[in-house]
Amino acid sequence: MAKNKDARPPAFAISVVGLSGTEKEKGNCGVGKSCLCNRYVRPDADSYYQEHTSVLSTIDFGGRVVNNDHFLYWGEVVHRGDDGLDCRIQIIEQTEFIDDQTFLPHRSTNLQPYTKRAAASKLQSAEKLMYICTDQLGLEQDFDQKQMPDGKLNMDGFLLCIDISKGCNRRFDDQLKFVSSLYSQMAKSKKPIVVAATKCDEGVDQHLRDLQAFAASKKNLLVVETASRYNINVELCFNALLQQIDKTRGKPKTISFLDAYKTLRHQVAAVTDKYEKLVVQTVRDYHTTWNKVTNSLKGHPDFEEFITLEGSRKARNTYTKHITQLKQEHIKRRREEYLTTLPKTLNNLLNNLDEIEHLTWPEAQELIRNRPDFQYWFVILENTPWDETDHINNSDRRVPFDLLNTPDGEQIYHNHVQHLLSEKRRVEMKDRFKKTLERVHFISAGQPWEEVQCFVMEDEAYKYITESDRRDVYSRHQHDIVERAKEEFQEMLFEHAELFYDLDLNATPSCDKMSEIHCVLNEEPRYRALQKLAPDRESLLLKHIGFVYHPTKETCLSGQTCVDLKVEQVLANRLVQLDHGRSNLYYNSANIDKINLCLLGREGLAQELANEIRAQSTDDEYTLDGKIYELELLPVDVNSTLLFSHTWVSTFKPHGCFCVFNSIESLNCIGDCIGRIRAEISQHRRDRFAQPLPFILILANQRDSVCKNMPILRHQGQQLANKLQCTFVDIPSAAFPRKFNEFQVKQALRAVLEGLKHNFDVMSPLPSIKDMSETDLRIVMCAMCWDPFSVDLILSPFLDSHCCSAGQPGQSNTLILDKIIGDSRRRIQVTVLSYHTSIGIRKDELVHGYILVYSAKRKASMATLRAFLAEVQDVIPVQMVAITDSQADFFENDAIKELMTEGEHIATEIAAKFTALYSLSQYHRQTEVFTPFFNEVLEKKTSIESAFMFDSPNSCATMGGAGEDVFPTSPHGGSHSPAYTYYPDSEDDTEAPPPYSPIGDDVQLLPTPSERAKSYRIDLEGNEYPVHSTPVGEHERNHKVPPPVRPKPAVPKRGDVKKLDPNLLKTIEAGMRSNRRAPRGTLTHSVDDLETSDNYADPVDTLLKSTGYTDDIYAVPDDAHSRILKMRNSFGGRHVLHGGGGPLGGGEEENGYERRMQAGRRPSKYKHRSKILFMKTKAYQRRFHSDSDGEETGPATQNKKKKGRAHRGSEEDPLLSPADPWKGGIDNPAITSDPEQDDKKMKKKKKTKEPKKSKSGKPPKPLYPPTRRNWESHYFGVPLQNLVTHERPVPLFIEKCVDYIERTGLTTEGLYRVSGNKTDQDNIQKQFDQDHGVDFVVMDIAVNAVAGALKAFFADLPDPLIPYNLHPELVEAAKIVDHIERLQVLREIVNKFPPVNYLVFKYIIAHLNRVSQQSKTTLMTADNLSICFWPTLMRPDFENKDTLSTTKLNQAVIESFILQSDYFFYGADMAESSSSEGTPPPHCHNMVEALLPLQLPPPLQPQQIQHTLQPDALI
After folding, report:
1. What integer pLDDT is reported at residue 705 of this predicted model?
2. Neighbouring residues of 162: CB distance < 8 A, sequence distance ≥ 6
3. If 302 and its partner were Cys, which of 28, 274, 414, 482 is the partner (CB 3.0–4.6 Å)?
4. 321 with 286: CB under 8 angstroms?
């Protein structure tokens, strides 16, 4: 041991010795000395070298590493023992180097033999370098260079290496001899010796035993089993030697090779597992390189530990293995992806089963290659197979074609063929099942699949397809049924047009009106077809009513097939918009030849518009109305900063700005931009008289979006244009592929020029547009939406004429005809509208004639025509047009024949023109088809305008200019809608305003006295007549709407005057009071009012009077304002009543009769001239009010009935003469008396005169409902006494049901409330009919079905279980307030039951009491059970109103029986009563009030619709 002179750890030198020499002496390999040293000095796997040769060249031998010595210096190891002591161990390996030329030992300075040389305790070699590996020799500078300390070492111990492995061409005995000799030499040095048994991993047990025997023969010679390859016990052998050198150190435990090997393997396995997991987590892509992996894992403990134990090579092998696995997985995924895509690919390329059914796979491949879209699905690679090429790395998802040659590809093809076969079969079976469902006629709309399933279970198609397919087919079948039912229901609503078109102006129909509608429609099978879809049916009904209230293009139920939209599209396509002289305004106004336009838009819209304008231009020159303009375009995006600088206006000097939008967002941007531009310009404008910049809003077409957004955009655009006071250019109705249309560009340019014109100071004013657009006749053509003919058919007589041109710009539904009518050329304006749009202008606009078109194939079309025509004034000529395919339809189709005949009869009754147009004929293309009608209109033009002027006095000031716009205001109301005005001589005063009246909330029943003084003068007879001398504002014309109520003559008590109907006075007074309270409110009507004709006067002045007939006026005081209501008396004498009681004095005389004679007669309605129209209109009212008409009692009513229609007015026709009810009036020559109808009415009147004999105390009439069974039964539906005996007082069926329910159903939620399956209920009764001993438990049926069958048993009894004669007593008892008294009375009543009824009632009530005790689980309290059972036990007549008023009382009675069953039937004390038990319900006498129908839901009320979406103007 070397002595340490400083504080450094002690150093020990160890010499590793063993068999060495030539190959002849040691064999062809060494004993493992170098490997042992290598493992100890550098234990890392990467620093361990297995090959250490002793055969060297002379140069290597003389190098500084060997240094001409036969020993190697391995370096120094710092060792820290378990006791914490550090030391340095210097390793020397004694060997013998062989010359690679002579294969003899190299000559060294020490010429001693190996045994003596190796045992030397002192070694010296100057500048000797540390040995690392064989590769170091000759390349010392490339390795770490460390010199042996001081050039000399003193050996402190020897490690003797003995190879116990097999082989190496040497005998183990020879090695032992050599070792024995060597040991003897080393022992002389008295240094510690430890034997290392090397290569134990390849060791021979015998050799090991021999070695151990050798060691045993020596004193204290320790043997350590080592294996340098696996680093087993290498450190142990050196530590053992170190302990012998330094006895102060602890003695290490010697471990056998096998135990150490097992420990090492466990350690290596754990480290390897951690490293593999680390690699899996780190490396996700098989393209990741090893260098990238090592850099990312460097410093990770798992990685470093594995490198130490196994080395980098194994680490890289693990990485390589993982990368290979990733690549295989990638290829596998790609293969699966291809194989997954292949069926879809084959389905696209080979989807025709007939084409491939008999092809082989190679033939199918060839067929695939010949497909035109082959390259879209497949790729052919130059190198195959595909998984060994770079194709796996690219993103091409096409299937490699060589994949088809694999077995998987062929199998997929065969599967595809089989799939096509099975799918073909499946589709066939689904179609067959669909046809099977179509043959089941009892399937109704909304019927669940479970109710139908049992009827089709035996069908072959049902058995073949899956349940999901069955439900899918049934769902489609149901969808077809529902849609068809809804379409038929909607068509039915249109067919009942007269039922809806007499609705009041109120936004919500009254309860009586809704009851009337439901009552009428309930008779229709198409109404009942949606019984199971009642909410949908109600929604359709409310939607239809909403449309009737608010009939516009936007609310039209036909959507995009609305006639108004179709007409706009056709006219936009077929007609060139002419400006009718408007272009002349541009010629003389500004002399502008160049127009600078700024195009403003978002996201490139401005540039697109610029491109469109340039495409329509020639060298930037644009032709408009015969003049050429040079256009300078500046397209700007709305987000450009240029817009918000005032300099661009001064530099570019725009004449106008086109603002384009195609969405709500772009419209909002445009609005903000226009505001900011105007603000910027006005802020920097120096000349305050400078012309403002015109802005034109242009709506761009949306080619890729649905059309439903266009009405919203159009509405929003128009609103913004109104707000900004600029022009809005809409999209033409016709479809076109581009975003902009030439028509839009021209309209926008005209708007710019017109804006400039108004800004110029022109010396001579131009003629007005009215003068240049004058028309002679104004005709309205009406057609029904959804009619089965094209709009082109009815427009072709006009469009195919050379004299047809477009109407005014903005009048998209109008065309102009220039025709020779009579003796000169006339200009006729024809406006083509839907019926729902025409309703608004029927009363408020001047129309010279109507062309009413209907389809002879559609009843709804005729019904709508009737409803519209009924309200048209009979002075306006009408042309009726029936549309069908050909003349043969009239003879081959009875329905068409009936509708055409009805139309012809109506035309005959009202003296109208009638013609038919045939879609398969060319006759309809002749304009002359309407020439006779135009001639008639022209002949009657004067009388029509006179009647219109007579009907609307306010319009007289504007009637002089016949060239006005026909419909300048919206027929559906607006800001200028006037109030009601009182016109005493207008026939329209006898009618209520239509539901489509333009009158909104600004309704005034009568004008104030001051207003009347301005407009009227009073003659000597008290007649008021309008004053025409004062001009009236243009906005007031044609908006006269009469008051809804005009009273009958009030007759004073004088002998020749009759009394005024008191009901009428109440009505008038109520109207006046409501007028005072809400002068601007809408009119309301009581549902209990008399019929419409009862609230009207009988105007005698409509009849032809004989000579000497006088017009007498009667007035009725109405309110405190002393306004006067005047009626004419038919019996002579003048009597005027004033509100103050005094006579009305004086006035300028003007004879009203003479004025009427000059006008001919007052206009009536066509419904009073056509028996068909009148009867259709009144049919619904008669049907609904037929029961209430005959119930009037009392002297006044009887007296009025005795006097007949002469005194109460005709229900059929309010214009019939009161004096002679059997003569037709002037306005209704077609209506005559019907003796049969009169006979029926006389019988009806006699019936109403009979006093009512029914009394409240009389028991109600027994109600025998029709049986619910569809089979014959001798048990169910028979009297109760036939089912009981003395031994069995309760029917067996009741006992079985109660027993089953109480055993299985007392935990069922909703027992008796939740309905059971109807089929199961019937099966229960059928099974019991066949076998009274049937066991319900064996039948395995739901308890709700048994409960339903039990209730059905009582419902089928001929008489209810609680006799009818006791019902009044039970009701009276229920009204008793005192609880104890009430129960006592009820017990007395129940004892009056027949014995059979009593016992059964006792049994069932006791059962219900037991059920109520389980209410925590069943949720069925006594109250709930009484609600479910009282109708079954008492079976009241719900058609009787008295029953409705006692409903709650009856239910309270049954509840008391259930709660107090022990008291009533078993003599027990009264149970504690709940707070509500048996208490008489409040207001029970008014129970019917709670059953009134609900009001319409708010979203469908037309008043709200009007606020959210204003209807478009007609023009």
Report:
1. 52
2. 18, 19, 31, 175, 176, 179, 195, 196, 197, 198, 211
3. 274
4. no
- What per-residue confidence (pLDDT) applies to 1089? 40
Return the number of other C-beta atoms located less than 10 Å from residue 1277's C-beta: 17
CA distance 332 to 340: 12
Tokens 């009044």, located at residue: 1368
For residue 1340, the model assigns a pLDDT of 79
Helix (H, G, I), strand (E, B) or coil at 1147: coil
CB distance 226 to 161 below 8 Å: no
- Cα–Cα distance list, 259 to 200, 625, 770, 953 (Å): 12, 112, 120, 126
- In which element (H, E) is residue 783 found? strand 777-783
Judged against a pLDDT cut of 70, whether residue 75 lies above it is answered with yes
> Rounded CA gap, 1072 and 876, in Å?
34
Residue 528 has phi, psi (to 5 degrees) of: -75, -20
Tell me the pairing of strands 1124-1129 and 1112-1117: antiparallel
Q: If you ran DSSP here, which 8-state letter would residue 357 be given?
A: T
For residue 251, the 8-state DSSP code is P
d(CA 131, CA 47): 12
pTM, two decimal places: 0.43
Cα–Cα distance list, 1072 to 853, 1045, 1050, 1066, 1215 (Å): 42, 11, 16, 10, 26
Residue 962 main-chain phi, psi, to 5 deg: -75, -5
**Residue 248 pLDDT:** 81
**H/E run at residue 1405:** helix 1395-1412
Q: Cis link prior to 385 (omega < 30° from 0)?
A: yes
User: What are residue 1016's DSSP bridge partners?
Assistant: 1026
Spatial distance between the Cα atoms of 97 and 61, rounded to a whole number of angstroms: 8
pLDDT digits (tens, 9 = 90+) for 1081-1093: 333 333 334 333 3
pLDDT tens digits for range 1345-1399: 999 999 999 988 999 999 999 999 998 999 898 888 999 999 999 999 999 999 9
Torsion of CA 1265, 1266, 1272, 1273, to 10 degrees: -10
The CB-based long-range contact list for 1196-1199 (8 Å cut-off, 24+ gap) reads 1196/1061, 1196/1062, 1198/1249
Closest CA to 778 of 717, 700, 716, 833: 833
3-state helix, strand, coil in the chain (%, to 5): 50, 10, 40
CB 1126 within 8 A of CB 1144: no
Cross-strand bridge partners of residue 696: 658, 727
1190 DSSP 8-state letter: T
Question: pLDDT-derived band of residue 937, with 50, 70 and 90 as boundaries?
Answer: very high
pLDDT in tens, 236-256: 999 999 888 888 887 888 889
Rounded Cα distance between 837 and 553, Å, is 8
- DSSP-assigned states of every residue in 943-1001: HHHHHHHHH-GGGTTTTT-TTS-S--S-TT--TTPPPP---TT-GGGGSPPPTT-S--S
As given in the structure block, the two tokens for residue 763 are: 């010396």
Q: For the chain, give me the number of helices (H) and strands (E)?
A: 56, 29
How many angstroms separate the CA atoms of 1001 and 292, rounded?
A: 83
**What is the rounded CA–CA span in Å between residue 1491 and residue 515?**
12
Question: SS3 string of 372-425?
Answer: CCHHHHEECCCCCCHHHCHHHCCCCCCEEHHHHHCHHHHHHHHHHHHHHHHHHH
CA distances from 761 to 308, 765, 766 (A): 102, 9, 12
- Position 197 scores a pLDDT of 94
> Tell me, what's the pLDDT at 1269?
65
d(CA 1408, CA 1423): 11
- Residue 505 to residue 997: CA distance in whole angstroms: 7
What is the signed CA dihedral for 939, 942, 946, 947, rounded to 10 degrees?
10
Give burial (CB, 10 Å; 0-12/13-18/19+) of 981.
buried
